[in-house]
Amino acid sequence: MERPVRIAAVMLILALIVEGLSLCWNTAASFLSFMIFGGIPFVGGVLIYVYSVFSGQPASRSTKLRP
Amino acid sequence: MVSPQSLLFILIGASIALILPFLVRPGIAVSREGKILAFAAFFILPVLAASIGASEHFERSKQTRFCLSCHIMAPWGKSLYVDDLSHLPAAHFQNHRIPVDVACYTCHSDYAMYGTLSTKLEGLHHVYVNYFGTPMNPIRLYHPYDNAACLHCHLGARSFESDPLHVAIMADLKGNKLSCLSSGCHDKAHDVAALDQQKFWTPTD
């Protein structure tokens, strides 16, 4: 559970930083940066997070912790 | 008042601030509350920020400055400042007959149904070819210029419709059988090959 969450966090933070930086300019290069260098880590981060949710590990762990 | 762009930056900052605790202590995503917070941090806020960011980028891509940010387009941008109003784009640009901040988009967009989408897709293709392909040399339009772009503004205008020549050929103009840019009509459009022989207008701020 911890590793996918960390990877997703890093990828999403990277994507959001790229998005923020790309908005500082209005050029075709900044648009392309947003699409490629922001889009790839964004999609990757969200997919890894969704995978970690549906992989079942968190649910089983939390069930065990219940009395 | 806070601008939409500032709100977007705040949203991006809030998203990063919510994700950071999960980077430091990923174990907090195990509890019920942690899962709800993780869903907001890893899905809702980033998707919202990315959607608004994409919308902002697409909106900005209409701007003249955006089109001219590629070096290959510089001569076309320069042709807007030719000091000869028989040059069609220069006359429109310099006299503010079109919004100067979205000049390229105004004359080169498709006003038909789904026209915005097709124009954006063509724009994406321009960006792709400029960075990853081989641009045309010299640059030319993918399709012959559509009169609909001219008629979108001029149709119904008194000066246009009261011209006997326009009235005589109106059906051909509407049907794209005769181009507005035909030789002898409005044929001086972005004459970039002859730019070095032109004088240029300098706007006063």
Topology of this structure?
The complex is a heterodimer of chains A (67) and B (205).
Chain A: H1 2-22, H2 28-54, H3 57-65
Helix pairs in contact in A: 1-2
Chain B: H1 4-24, H2 32-60, H3 64-67, H4 74-78, H5 88-94, H6 103-108, H7 115-132, H8 147-154, H9 158-161, H10 164-174
Helix pairs in contact in B: 1-2
Write down the Rg of chain B: 24 Å
Kindly state the number of beta strands of chain A: 0
Shape of chain A: elongated
Order of helices and strands of chain A: HHH
Structural class of the secondary structure composition of chain B? mainly alpha
State the separation between the terminal residues of chain A, measured CA to CA. 22 Å
What oligomeric state best describes the polypeptide chains here? heterodimer
Average pLDDT figure of chain B: 92
Count structural domains of chain A.
1
User: Which consecutive residue ranges of chain B, at least 5 long each, have pLDDT under 50?
Assistant: none
